Amino acid sequence: MTRFVRSWLGIAATTATLTIGGGQAFAQKELVFGLQCDRTGPTATVGTVLCPGYHDYIALVNSKGGVEGYKIKVLEIDNEYKVPPAMEAHERFKKEGAVLEGIYGTPQTAALNKKLEEDKILGTSPGFGTASAADGKRYPYTFPIAASYWSQAGAAVAYAKEKLGTLKGKKIAYLFYDNPAGKEPLPILEDLAKSEGFEMRTFAVPAPGLEMGAQILDITARFKPDFIIAHLFGRSPSVAIKELKGKGYPLSKVVGLVWASAEADIIAAGGMGVAEGYNTIQFAGVGKDFQVIKDIEAMYKAQGKPMPKEMDSTVYYNRGVLIAALHVEAARNAIKAKGGAAPNSEEVKKGMESIKGFTLGGLVPPMEITPADHEGGGWVQIWTVKGGKLVRSKDWFQGFRAVIQKHVAEDAKKS
Question: What is the pLDDT of residue 413?
């Protein structure tokens, strides 16, 4: 038996034994969700926290009777941040009757876009993947359901403009992981450089991103930018923070896109003191001061179990909760639309396209997902390291939304 199959069977067996409050087993009404994760690959620092957040929210929902009376069964497969296991995972989910699929990784999303459409199974790619998939007409079964890399880039430039007062004549460095995800924001940054009048220079960091002394020296000693946008993943964000700090560059003039923005990145760089002033873009609320997080803690207490350590890494954990919550809300909308009958994936897709006004107490942005907009508006917040912790410094906003929409429309014409 392969490790791939063992992983899947282990998760399936675990989810199949979930029970509600008094220990009474669920009735056999069940919905299957597929979830891809990276627990052993280059972005395992994300997956090993984000995916437990997803499972904990599903367990919370199941502990309260499920979704409109349906138990949720989650089948998770570790794709190791590789495309072939992601494709195999999709086939496994389809075989098991999953009504939706949580994808993991930009290369994996690009490979699956067409398969999702062929098999009529909605897949979500929150905060990564194909930015033009915001266009629900062109990508009917792919749902970013969070700010795409294009929207993140627009927000980063808008934030730099706010901090600098103007961008005209300024210099911005783009420090990025040299892979398809790292390159995804480039069209937006290049467009904004022209329209806003700033000089942009790019600095690519080869995988695995643990060495970037040459790039940081080039940025700080030669280019000397007014602002830096960092788009890094895995262990590389902490390297960038440490290197920039060591070269004396003010971290208050740095903003990390969403995968360079977790507590783990800051701790690995030397702690909150070292990262003081560092700005991060977030598409989910940060911290534990949300009712849903308190409800998960109460669930663990009621079960007599210790709090999972993953909850302390709130950036990624909370994103897992956000993804699960949007999956559940899509299923809830579909079940209600059918008068309580079990929905198929096509109906859950329509349920996802009906999400509006669902904020989960502020943890989820004020998005509205429609058949035309599968991104939900591209909302983000800015959180800054202040006094030894991440503090919200800018509430939900959109950056250069008209520019993003222009690129989505232009990209559609190429197809």
Answer: 84
Three-state SS for 289-311 is CCHHHHHHHHHHHHCCCCCCHHH
May I ask the CATH class of domain 3-147+286-362? Answer: alpha beta
Pairwise CA distance, residues 208 & 236, whole Å: 7
Strand 279-282 versus strand 380-386 pairing type: antiparallel
**Residue intervals in the chain for CATH 3.40.50.2300:** 3-147+286-362, 149-282+379-414
Burial class of residue 321 (count of CB atoms within 10 Å of its CB; 0-12, 13-18, 19+): buried
Which SS3 state, helix, strand or coil, does residue 325 take?
Answer: helix
Give CA separation, 8 vs 11, 73, 305, in Å.
Answer: 5, 12, 24
366/103 Cα distance (integer angstroms) = 22
Tens-digit pLDDT profile for residues 123-144: 999 999 999 999 999 999 999 9
Per the CB < 8 A criterion, the answer to whether 371 and 131 are in contact is no
CATH number at 149-282+379-414: 3.40.50.2300
Alpha-helix residue ranges (DSSP H) falling in 1-98: 3-16, 44-63, 83-95
Segment 285-337, tens digit of pLDDT: 999 999 999 999 999 999 999 999 999 999 999 999 999 999 999 999 999 99
C-alpha separations of 163 from 3, 197, 258, 369 in Å: 49, 16, 19, 30
Q: Report the C-alpha gap between 97 and 174 in whole angstroms.
A: 42
